[in-house]
Each structure stands twice: as C-alpha cells, then as structure tokens.
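Lab meeting, item 3. Inverse folding demo.
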C-alpha cells in the first residue's frame, strides 16, 4: 500500500476494498489491513483486487475519486468514475496539445531529455563498476556526446529536429550496448536494433521487455485519466499507444535495457531459451518467457527513491508517478513536466 500524489496504490493481492463512514478499509482474509480517510484522495489503484463494495464505488463516483482495477501484472482492467468532470477537461487539453506541433515539442523534449540522461547514467555507472572490463575511454567519449545531445534537445523547437537529436543519441548509446554484455558473449551480442522480427537473442529480449514496459505505461496513463493512444512525440496511428511510447522513452534504458543486461550477465537466461525460425526470426521459448515475466514482476517490486518526488516507491509504480506528474502538468499544476532522471 502506498499513498503517492493523492493516489492510493493497493499493491497486495486479494485485498477487498470497503467503505466505513468517510474511510476506505482494506481487508484481506477477514483481517483489516488499513483504514484511511478518503477526503484527500483523488484516485485509488488496486492491483489484483478481490473486489470492492458497491458502497465504496458509489462514494468514490459521487466525489469524483477514480477507482482503478488492474491485474497483478499491471494490465488495465477498468476504471470506475462518476460524472465526467476532471478527466474530460484533462483529455481535451491533451488533444489540443497533441494537435499543435510546437506545444507537442515542448512536452516531448522532456521525455527525450530523460531518456538521454538515463542512458548517460548507465554508461557512467559501467565505468565506475567495471573499469577493467570495458573500454572506459570509449564510454566516456559517448557520455560526453550524450551531454551535448541533451543540451541540443533542451533548445529544440520542432518535432522533426527533436527526432533527429533523439536518433543521434540512440546511435551513440547503442555503440556501447554490446560492451555492457559481460557474460555469455558467444550467444549474446548486440550489433544493431532489429524489431520485426528480432534477429538475435538480445533483440528478442529487448523487444519483449519494451512490450511489457509499454503495457505498464499504457495502464498507468489510463489509470490517471489520460488517453494512452494520443501522443506528442509519437503521432497518431491506429492501434498504437503513442503516449505510452512517449512516456516510456525515459525508462527504456534505465529499466528495460538494464533489466535485460542483468538477466544475461547473471546467466538467468541462456542460449537454450531461444528458438530460430526459418525466416531468421529469433523468439524466446515458452519457459523462457515465464522466467522473464517472473523476473520482471520481481524487478517491479524493488524499492527506489523517486528522483523528483523524493519518496520511496517500487519500480512498478514509476510509470504511475510519471503519469500523475504529466496529468498535473497538463492541468497547469506544474510549470513543466519533470522527466524521470535516475541517479
């Protein structure tokens, strides 16, 4: 259980939510876990819920407190809301900004600044932790180049140029990705990103991790009342969660890439966990996907201190924290969207 930005996160499984006066009561196996006042809450997010009382749902709907239900894996199920008030205003603001490329750039560049900063942090961390196993000069050179890219991104005024700076930064960062693979080098290597289909073991893992991350971010955006399909950097495309792809940019390296590298370097995944198809596509076996998913859920439980909020939360709640901050920015409660910049 975590109270963050006026949102109550119920992260334990099999918890029943009920109402007692003006309080929410959390019950598990007939035992009361907590009793909290509702008057300061804007939303309640329940993972793997057992149920919620009609009285609580009615109370929340009447007072415009969103009640969101997700699976334990973070997949969005439903959101119970009352009369449309705050969310429709929020989404209309989102749509207006998305339709204006200049305003879209002002939001999108912070996603990319966060991405470049976090990728730079990964490289700096490697030079500190493994100075004898990597080419430190190479990593430092790329890190300095990423610093330049951040400065250029900060002053970027249109989406086309922003995509150009992001692409250059990605090329620089990817030059070091293979060097961060320290174990099983014969079976795990990275030369370039291949998506449809992935052509090697590392790309197969990266694609799977990015899919999981995109789903988590999309669920978080929907939970706070935003439209996951209408983005700022990624433009509208039928069936694409464009805003989720925007927000996840700052988490790709520091969460997904780092997670994949850890699985390889700790030998949690090995060459027997992959199959190669006739068309050259490399896919993970069913057992490997189960191992991957289990490790991903475990990773999401790890505690960190959010760099902007200064509060201890799990990695799994980072997409929700960023979604809440984005919603606050769109409501003019913040002067600027604060990207997740890990330290």
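The presenter then showed the designed sequence:
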């Amino acid at each position: 259980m975590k109270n963050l930005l006026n949102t109550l996160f119920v992260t334990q499984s099999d918890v029943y939510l009920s109402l007692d006066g003006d309080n929410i009561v959390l019950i598990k196996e007939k035992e009361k876990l907590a009793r909290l006042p509702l008057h300061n809450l804007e939303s309640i997010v329940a993972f793997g819920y057992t149920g919620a009382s009609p009285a609580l749902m009615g109370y929340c709907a009447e007072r415009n407190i969103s009640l969101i239900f997700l699976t334990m894996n973070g997949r969005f199920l439903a959101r119970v809301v009352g009369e449309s008030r705050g969310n429709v205003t929020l989404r209309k603001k989102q749509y207006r900004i998305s339709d204006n490329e200049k305003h879209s750039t002002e939001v999108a560049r912070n996603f990319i600044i966060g991405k470049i900063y976090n990728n730079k942090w990964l490289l700096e961390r490697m030079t500190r932790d493994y100075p004898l196993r990597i080419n430190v000069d190479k990593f430092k050179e790329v890190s300095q180049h990423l610093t330049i890219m951040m400065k250029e991104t900060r002053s970027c005024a249109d989406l086309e140029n922003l995509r150009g700076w992001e692409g250059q930064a990605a090329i620089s960062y990817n030059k070091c990705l293979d060097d961060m693979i320290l174990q099983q080098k014969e079976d795990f290597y990275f030369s370039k990103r291949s998506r449809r289909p992935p052509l090697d073991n590392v790309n197969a893992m990266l694609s799977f991790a990015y899919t999981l991350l995109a789903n988590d971010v999309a669920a978080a955006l929907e939970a706070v009342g935003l439209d996951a399909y209408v983005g700022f950097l990624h433009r509208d495309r039928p069936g694409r969660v464009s805003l989720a792809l925007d927000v996840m940019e700052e988490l790709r390296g520091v969460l997904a890439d780092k997670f994949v590298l850890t699985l390889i370097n700790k030998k949690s995944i090995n060459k027997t966990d992959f199959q190669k198809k006739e068309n050259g596509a490399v896919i993970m076996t069913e057992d490997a996907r189960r191992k991957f998913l289990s490790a991903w859920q475990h990773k999401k439980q790890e505690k960190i201190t959010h760099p902007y909020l200064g509060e201890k939360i799990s990695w799994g709640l980072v997409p929700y924290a960023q979604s809440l901050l984005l919603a606050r920015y769109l409501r003019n409660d913040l002067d600027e969207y604060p990207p997740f910049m890990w330290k």
